């Protein structure tokens, strides 16, 4: 299923934007997409961690968004 989430890049570029993506993506795939969209030059941190701000949970590396409870309207902070 496709979901729309808000991506918070506060630790890198300070931007916040909405993104529509599959809930079957892994955390690593989401971060790869964001880096490609934003064309960021700063290096990524190891582990591909994402914090779901409105649910106080984390998703990392090979974990699938849907399996960690990420749904439509969530706010994802790239750590």
Question: Descriptors for this entry?
Answer:
alpha+beta; 1 helix; 15% helix; five-stranded mixed beta sheet; Ubiquitin-like (UB roll)
Explain what the structure shows.
This is Ubiquitin. The chain is of the alpha+beta class and 79 residues long. The chain has a domain at 1-48: Roll (Ubiquitin-like (UB roll)). The chain has 1 helix and 5 strands, in the order E-E-H-E-E-E. The chain has one helix at residues 27-38, and strands at residues 2-8, 16-22, 49-52, 57-60, 75-78. The chain has a 5-stranded mixed beta sheet with strand order 2-1-5-3-4, with helices on one face. The longest helix is centred in the middle third of the chain and has 12 residues, at 27-38. The termini are far apart. The mean pLDDT is 92.
Secondary structure: elements and pairs:
Layout: E1 2-8, E2 16-22, H1 27-38, E3 49-52, E4 57-60, E5 75-78
Parallel strand pairs: 1-5
Antiparallel strand pairs: 1-2, 3-4, 3-5
Protein name: Ubiquitin
Family: Belongs to the EsaB family.
Helix content: 10-25%
Helix-strand topology string: EEHEEE
Looking across the biggest beta sheet, what order are the strands in?
Answer: 2-1-5-3-4
| CATH architecture identity of one domain | Roll
The H-level CATH homologous superfamily of one domain, spelled out, is Phosphatidylinositol 3-kinase Catalytic Subunit, Chain A, domain 1
Care to count the β-strands? Answer: 5
The secondary structure category is alpha+beta
* Number of DSSP helical runs: 1
**Low-pLDDT segments, ≥5 res:** none
Instruction: Please state roughly what percent of the residues sit in beta strands, choosing from under 5%, 5-15%, 15-25%, 25-35%, 35-45% or over 45%.
Output: 25-35%
- The overall pLDDT, averaged over residues, is 92
Regarding CATH, which class of one domain? Alpha Beta
Shape: globular
The biggest beta sheet, please?
Answer: 5 strands, mixed
Gyration radius, in Å = 11 Å
Distance between the ends: 25 Å
Protein name: Ubiquitin
Family: Belongs to the EsaB family.
Organism: Shouchella clausii (strain KSM-K16)
Pfam families: YukD
């Amino acid at each position: 299923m496709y979901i729309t989430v808000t991506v918070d890049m506060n630790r890198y570029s300070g931007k916040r934007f909405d993104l529509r993506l599959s809930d079957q993506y892994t955390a690593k795939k989401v971060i790869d997409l964001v880096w490609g969209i934003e064309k960021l030059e700063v290096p990524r941190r190891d582990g591909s961690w994402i914090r779901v701000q409105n649910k106080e949970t984390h998703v990392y590396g090979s974990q699938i968004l849907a399996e960690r409870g990420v749904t439509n309207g969530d706010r994802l902070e790239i750590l």
